[in-house]
Amino acid sequence: GSDFVILGDVKPQSNIVVFADSKQGKTSLCTEYAPDPIAYINFDRRAYPAVKKAMDKGRRIVYLDVDTPAHVSRLGEQEAKKLGQTAVNKVIKNFAWAVEQSKKRLIRSIVLDTGTEYSEILNLAITGKGGGVKNDFGQSRDLASREWWRLFNLAREGQAHLIVLARAQEIWVGNEPTGKFKPRGPKVMIDACDWAAQARIRSKKGKGGGEKWFELEITSAGINKDEEGKVYTADDWGEDGPFAYSSWMQFVETSDIDQWK
């Protein structure tokens, strides 16, 4: 005998990274469009108003703040490590709870706002420092990457989409800006996700203040490479929302859109 299994249908769960410049609606994109109920883990200190606004509209969100001091340089190394590890433990505990709830279909999305800040917390827990560590031969970076893989793999055990928000960082080539962007954070976020996208708010002036809408550009697609470079708006995703729609487009020939909602 063996432990091999026959694979069945595609499991409708995605690990997603969405990045954007400041004031481009990362939080609102999730609170308005991520399949709910949502488990929202916030490191940003600014997300609560958007979360509350969405809840007042009837969106189902459970909310968690994970806070750390703004001036970690004032702390000793061991004190900083302890504080960082306490925050990481809090994330893992509540993340695991959300995954278990997703198996009962009680949570449909888990949001980290943002992965950029969570990476800083991981670094704090590992090194006791707010910045990078020199001359450790990549050991601290490797440990942080393992923690990220732990989260992504844990999400795959459940039925909820993992949506990692991140700040945008412009890509430079030869000391020149390219006008293209990537998530600000460790490369593992892209390596471990199923697809990534840059979010933008577009606007058009007109009577009554004009019009604004979200735009999502797929920058990385791990399953359907044809999706890379495509730009979607509400005209495409409609009532299905950008996360369910873009996840479905990774498996458009082998699944149904309703599975991803």
Q: What's the shape?
A: globular
Determine the number of helices (DSSP H or I, runs of at least 4 residues). Answer: 8
For the termini, the CA-CA separation is 38 Å
The average pLDDT score comes to 88
Largest sheet, in brief, is: 9 strands, mixed
Oligomer: single chain
Compressed to H and E, one letter per element, the order equals EHEHEHEHHEEHEEEHH
Strand content: 25-35%
What is the number of E strands? 9
Helix content: 25-40%
Poorly predicted runs of 5 or more residues: none
* Rg for CA atoms: 19 Å
What class would the helix/strand composition place it in? alpha/beta
How is this structure best described in words?
By secondary structure, this protein is α/β, with parallel strands linked by helices. It is 35% helix and 25% strand. It contains eight helices and nine strands. The protein has helices at 26-33, 48-56, 77-102, 115-127, 139-156, 188-192, 234-237, 242-250, and strands spanning 15-20, 38-42, 61-65, 109-113, 161-173, 176-183, 195-204, 211-221, 231-233. α1 (26-33) packs parallel to α2 (48-56) and α3 packs across α4 (115-127). The longest helix has 26 residues, at 77-102. The mean pLDDT is 88.
What secondary-structure arrangement, pairings included, does this model have?
Elements lengths: L14 E6 L5 H8 L4 E5 L5 H9 L4 E5 L11 H26 L6 E5 L1 H13 L11 H18 L4 E13 L2 E8 L4 H5 L2 E10 L6 E11 L9 E3 H4 L4 H9 L11
Helix pairs in contact: 1-2, 3-4, 4-5
